[in-house]
From TrEMBL:
<keyword id="KW-0029">Amino-acid transport</keyword>
<keyword id="KW-0812">Transmembrane</keyword>
<feature type="transmembrane region" description="Helical">
    <location>
        <begin position="76"/>
        <end position="97"/>
    </location>
</feature>
<feature type="transmembrane region" description="Helical">
    <location>
        <begin position="183"/>
        <end position="201"/>
    </location>
</feature>
<keyword id="KW-1003">Cell membrane</keyword>
<feature type="transmembrane region" description="Helical">
    <location>
        <begin position="12"/>
        <end position="37"/>
    </location>
</feature>
<feature type="domain" description="ABC transmembrane type-1">
    <location>
        <begin position="13"/>
        <end position="202"/>
    </location>
</feature>
<keyword id="KW-1133">Transmembrane helix</keyword>
<comment type="similarity">
    <text>Belongs to the binding-protein-dependent transport system permease family.</text>
</comment>
<keyword id="KW-0813">Transport</keyword>
<dbReference type="InterPro" id="IPR010065">
    <property type="entry name" value="AA_ABC_transptr_permease_3TM"/>
</dbReference>
<dbReference type="InterPro" id="IPR043429">
    <property type="entry name" value="ArtM/GltK/GlnP/TcyL/YhdX-like"/>
</dbReference>
<feature type="transmembrane region" description="Helical">
    <location>
        <begin position="49"/>
        <end position="70"/>
    </location>
</feature>
<dbReference type="InterPro" id="IPR035906">
    <property type="entry name" value="MetI-like_sf"/>
</dbReference>
<protein>
    <submittedName>
        <fullName>Ectoine/hydroxyectoine ABC transporter permease subunit EhuC</fullName>
    </submittedName>
</protein>
<feature type="transmembrane region" description="Helical">
    <location>
        <begin position="156"/>
        <end position="177"/>
    </location>
</feature>
<keyword id="KW-0472">Membrane</keyword>
Amino acid sequence: MTSGLWELVLRGVWVTIQLLVLSALLATAVSFVAGVARTHRLWIVRFLAGFYTEVFRGTSALVMIFWVFFVLPPAFGWQLVPLWAGTLALGLTYGAYGSEIVRGALAAVDPAQREGGIALSFTPWQRMRLILLPQAVPEMVPPFSNLLIELLKGTALVSIMGMGDLAFSGNLVRLALQESAEIYTYVLLIYFVIAFLLTRLMRGLEKKLKAGVGKVPVREPDLEPKRPETTHVGGAV
């Protein structure tokens, strides 16, 4: 490819990274708000959080992008730029999945920890902030890592709005060169590199958080075969 086409691809990578960071921040905030709300003592709060979760988990992210970008403007009289429309649609969609991660991690905390907070006369917010979240957050990191990778792949959906992300830029280069195999191979490799870096970053975060609460992260299995132990008959090993 020429330098101009590579520049187009790199601009697409930058747009994808911006969209990924913004939508991940929104999804994280929504995940914690909705996830904690699903454990609230008031049924109306649990109902509203559950309603949001079921609605956004049960709808297509692609259709949600269409709805935010094409339906909201005539309904409310304002238009979102593609970057913010994509951020809103992806953040709310993946935040619904993340809320289940938060709810499940909070529910997995030992009930004795909750009882200890009650015995110490902690308020519900103090129990959540000082006891439950510090123990639950490290357990959220692996599933959040998977969700982040899914979000990265979901950013390609914004190309339907004409947004110049990596997928859209790759398609423009393909049309210019009429070389599908080469261009899409490059695009796949770029997505893989970004996903690999995100995975390593999240693993480092998991180790740091678990070390902070005195837990040792589960080590990955050793892929190298172990040598069988040999013994000598009538002698020492």
